[in-house]
Each structure stands twice: as structure tokens, then as C-alpha cells.
């Protein structure tokens, strides 16, 4: 049986204007994974920046084939480029991991799940529409709720605050670790590690 290819897609909006936004944290995580793998994302005809690599397991060795991708389309049409990458690299939907910002999780926390609703997230809604299923894996990167009466749509399009920014590298690290665990050990084992209470 041929080796299954994983597709790990980080969501965000393209361009410098949005690069530091909370909504782009998924793309930041995928960039961190590329850095760890000693590679960088390159323009791909699917409408994304992407690179095929291997994520080495703990202790070294040859990890599974993983395509890292960030759509270069806007968030609400992420599904088209993601589906095109999946088709180009022959990645099945059960090996699709979508990394995205999550309002319903406190800043600094990471959660893993498969399927479920989109929670008003336009990127997820677009991917669900393109694949015709909600049954893909998600790495949910907590950005917390907006303060006061701020509109969530405005909140996600703002950069991380001055108090959050020093913690952001740790959040990106934790989320990248979660992706690697998911790919190497599967959802249940990865959840037990990622969701465990912090000491």
C-alpha cells in the first residue's frame, strides 16, 4: 500500500497588511512547521504557497510525507486552494489538517478535533463547502474573545496585543507541536497530550 500524504493547511489572509492579525495565526503555525523542517513555502499553481516535506518524529528518523500549505486567496475562499492542493498531492480528506484561529478557546491554548461545526469561521465554512464534508482534522489555536463589545469580525483582523505578543512564539510552538503529534500518533493520542492540564 502506498504511503498516505498529509496536507496541513494554515488559514489566514494574504499580504503584509494582514500578516500579524489574529486571523492569520494558522498561517503562522504552518510557517513555523516549515522552518522546523528546514524548508520554506513556495508559490504553487493551486493558489497557495506550499512545500512537500517530511516531519521527523521525536528521536529522529524518516517521518511521513507532509505537504505544508497556506492559501494565497482570502480567508472566505480558502476552500478552493485547499481542495486544489489536496488533488495535486493526492491527499485524502481524512489526512487533511486545518490550522486556524479559534475565538472560543482562551489565548495561548490549543485544541484538536475532527469534524464539528465551523463556529462562524469563514475559512472553515469554505473548506467544508469545497470538500463536501466537515470531517477533517482541525488544530484550533486559541485567540480568546474580544474585549467589551468589540465585534469579533474586527477583533480577528487586529494584530495581537502588546501583552499577547511576547507569548505568541510559545503559542506557535505549542500549535506546531500539536500538528506533529497529530501526524505521528493520530488524533486520540495527540489529544491526550495536547489537552492534558498544564503542571
UniProtKB/TrEMBL annotation:
Keywords: Cytoplasm, Hydrolase, RNA-binding, tRNA-binding. It comes from the Bacteria. The record marks 101 as: Stabilizes the basic form of H active site to accept a proton. The keyword Hydrolase applies. It is found in: Cytoplasm. PROSITE patterns: PEPT_TRNA_HYDROL_1, PEPT_TRNA_HYDROL_2. The active site is at 23 (proton acceptor). Its EC number is 3.1.1.29. It is an enzyme of class 3 (hydrolase). One of its GO terms (biological process) is rescue of stalled ribosome. InterPro entries: Pept_tRNA_hydro (IPR001328), Pept_tRNA_hydro_CS (IPR018171), Pept_tRNA_hydro_sf (IPR036416). It catalyses: an N-acyl-L-alpha-aminoacyl-tRNA + H2O = an N-acyl-L-amino acid + a tRNA + H(+). One of its GO terms (molecular function) is peptidyl-tRNA hydrolase activity. Pfam families: Pept_tRNA_hydro. TRNA binds at residues 18, 74, 76, 122. Its main location: cytoplasm. The record marks 13 as: Discriminates between blocked and unblocked aminoacyl-tRNA. One of its GO terms (cellular component) is cytoplasm. Monomer. Hydrolyzes ribosome-free peptidyl-tRNAs (with 1 or more amino acids incorporated), which drop off the ribosome during protein synthesis, or as a result of ribosome stalling. Catalyzes the release of premature peptidyl moieties from peptidyl-tRNA molecules trapped in stalled 50S ribosomal subunits, and thus maintains levels of free tRNAs and 50S ribosomes. Belongs to the PTH family. This is Peptidyl-tRNA hydrolase. It comes from Janibacter melonis.
Amino acid at each position: 500500500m502506498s504511503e498516505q500524504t498529509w496536507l496541513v493547511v494554515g488559514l489566514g489572509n494574504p499580504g503584509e497588511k494582514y500578516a500579524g492579525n489574529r486571523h492569520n495565526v494558522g498561517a503562522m503555525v504552518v510557517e513555523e512547521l516549515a522552518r522546523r523542517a528546514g524548508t520554506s513555502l513556495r508559490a504553487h499553481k493551486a493558489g497557495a504557497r506550499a512545500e512537500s516535506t517530511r516531519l521527523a518524529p521525536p528521536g529522529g528518523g524518516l517521518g511521513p510525507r507532509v505537504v505544508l500549505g497556506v492559501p494565497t486567496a482570502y480567508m472566505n475562499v480558502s476552500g478552493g486552494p485547499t481542495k486544489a492542493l489536496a488533488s495535486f498531492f493526492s491527499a485524502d480528506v481524512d489526512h487533511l489538517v486545518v490550522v486556524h484561529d479559534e475565538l472560543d478557546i482562551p489565548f495561548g491554548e490549543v485544541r484538536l478535533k475532527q469534524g464539528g461545526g465551523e463556529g462562524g469561521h469563514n475559512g472553515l465554512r469554505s473548506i467544508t463547502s469545497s470538500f463536501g464534508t466537515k470531517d477533517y482534522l482541525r488544530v484550533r489555536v486559541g485567540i480568546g474573545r474580544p474585549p467589551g463589545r468589540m465585534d469579533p469580525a474586527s477583533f480577528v483582523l487586529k494584530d495581537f496585543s502588546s501583552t499577547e505578543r511576547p507569548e505568541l512564539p510559545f503559542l506557535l510552538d505549542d500549535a506546531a507541536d500539536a500538528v506533529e503529534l497529530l501526524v505521528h500518533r493520530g488524533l486520540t493520542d495527540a489529544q491526550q497530550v495536547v489537552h492534558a492540564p498544564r503542571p
